[in-house]
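Question (not urgent): is this output format expected?
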Amino acid sequence: MGKARLEFKAKQSGGVFKMSESEHQRKVFINENSKKNTRVFRNNVGFGWCGKVLKKFGACVTLVNASPVKFGLCPGSADLIGLEKIEITLEMVGKKIGRFVAIECKSKTGVQKTEQEDFQSIVEKLGGKYILSRKGE
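Got this back:
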């Protein structure tokens, strides 16, 4: 990830400068991704609609063949999720640790997009488990 330079605007409240939650999140995102053994991703959780736009007027949109779409990891999941590569020490032997697992499901002839291959590379490089599951296997 390239080095980004951002200026964070702080709001002054009673002589104390406070950073908004979104500004704080952006700062944490940049900080974590600047570390050699860590990669985090923004995890927006929510609900929306997709379909063909029939009419748009200001903030109102009329869709044809509208389908509901849930996105994000799950309700209640963290704003930033990711992987951290760690070294197993003698003190950790025999203890249980969590491991990030990503499973991409494809048809027998389905091809990974470049972005999916890049994601696989990040997961595997940092010690996570990536599975490319094909229908019928």
